[in-house]
Specification:
The protein is α+β, with helices and mostly antiparallel strands and 364 residues long. Helix content is 32%, strand content 21%. It is globular. The N terminus is likely disordered. InterPro entries: DNA/RNA_non-sp_Endonuclease_sf (IPR044929), Endo_G_ENPP1-like_dom (IPR001604), ENPP1-3/EXOG-like_nuc-like (IPR020821), His-Me_finger_sf (IPR044925), Non-specific_endonuclease (IPR040255).
Length: 364
């Protein structure tokens, strides 16, 4: 199956070339690119090795040691229509997922109802998670690049449902606090021309019997690792009336979070996060010119009630019968939410539209 995707393997110089565009390739082409013939000399550029007075001898010795190739952990980076990620074949989760969203990305007709979670066809079966791993596990399939960040394009949205972009996430966290954080990121596109997001999992130590221990659950026969925490690094650019660039990093426990907690409660220094994950974010960015996003934009999430109203508004718009419409409206009473005039007008307009549609059908 051919797709507009690409795979990066090699040194940082290769990365610079690859980031200039997407590559069309098939799964067989990708496999050919990741397999180095045993007889070819190894390219150790960008690889750390001990330098002696005879560097060429060291390189030659390295080639002899790795006669049949460097142990292959898969592509360093995989490119998709509107996100980029690095996949951990051992844990069956992404290491990180990067996005760049602008106002047009979060608007459009792409429909998540036309998509399904699927293993990424570019990942060998032996290194992939499956839907069966998640089934009846008590954990949700949490997107790192959200589907709703890709309303502009159906293919881009469908690619977010590959399991390379998914990790085990607490159900309440996924639908609650983390969802509000994703909404905040999309809302930033109203105030900044460019919003760049990198998200991923963490496995952090906790004290047990006086010792720091990293323990985590695994799911299914493929042992999909459940992270203890999630991170999100947000970089904004091009504010209409403020700082040109601002960044903040957040670390969120992978567990239910009170609706009263604020995003600033999970703010961490970027360097602290980098020390934990073992890689640097935006290494070509001049950090001396950066501002703190939470000082520029306050980092204020929508309230839990606002989130409920958001979904009620969304479900009202999707209602296909007056019965379904009234059922959605009763959610307001059940959740003790007060509709504003805009929501009431939306309900009345939708109800009138559905009644007219039903009348036309009865006349046929």
């Amino acid at each position: 199956m051919a797709m507009f995707r690409g795979v990066l393997i090699g040194s940082s110089s290769t990365a610079l070339l690859c980031t200039l565009g997407f590559y069309t390739y098939s799964h067989s082409i990708q496999q050919a690119a990741t397999t180095r013939p045993a007889s070819s000399p190894l390219d150790l550029q960008g690889t750390s090795y001990h330098v002696t007075s005879d560097e060429q001898a060291v390189r030659q010795r390295g080639s002899e040691i790795l006669k049949y190739g460097i142990p292959d952990r898969g592509p360093m980076v995989s490119y998709y229509a509107n996100h980029v990620l690095s996949y951990d074949q051992a844990k069956r989760t992404p290491l990180w997922v990067a996005e760049h969203i602008q106002p047009h990305h979060v608007k459009g007709s792409a429909d998540r109802k036309r998509t399904n979670f699927n293993p990424d066809p570019a990942v060998p079966t032996m290194f992939s998670a499956t839907n069966d791993d998640y089934r009846k596990s008590g954990w949700s399939r949490g997107h790192m690049a959200p589907a709703a960040d890709n309303k502009h394009d159906q293919i881009a949205m469908e690619e977010t449902f590959y399991l390379t972009n998914i990790l085990p996430q607490d159900m309440d966290n996924n639908s609650g606090f983390w969802n509000r954080l994703e909404l905040y990121c999309r809302d930033l596109t109203k105030r900044f021309t460019d919003v760049r997001i990198i998200s991923g999992p963490l496995w952090l130590p906790r004290e047990q019997n006086g010792k720091n221990m990293v323990t985590y659950q695994v799911l299914g026969k493929n042992n999909v690792a459940v992270p203890t925490h999630l991170f999100k690094v947000i970089l904004v650019e091009g504010a209409s009336g403020g700082s040109h660039q601002a960044l903040s990093a957040f670390v969120v426990p992978n567990e239910p979070i009170s609706k009263h907690q604020q995003l600033k409660d999970f703010l961490v220094p970027l360097e602290h996060l980098e020390k934990v994950v073992g890689f640097r974010f935006h290494p070509q960015l001049n950090r001396a010119l950066l501002n703190n996003l939470c000082k520029v934009d306050e980092c204020r999430l929508a309230s839990a009630d606002d989130l409920e109203l958001y979904y009620i508004r969304k479900n009202l718009g999707a209602a296909s019968s007056t019965k379904q419409l009234d059922s959605v409206w009763k959610e307001l009473e059940r959740k003790k939410l007060k509709p504003d005039k805009q929501l009431m007008d939306m309900y009345n307009k939708k109800r009138q539209q559905l009644l007219q549609n039903a009348e036309r059908k009865s006349e046929l």
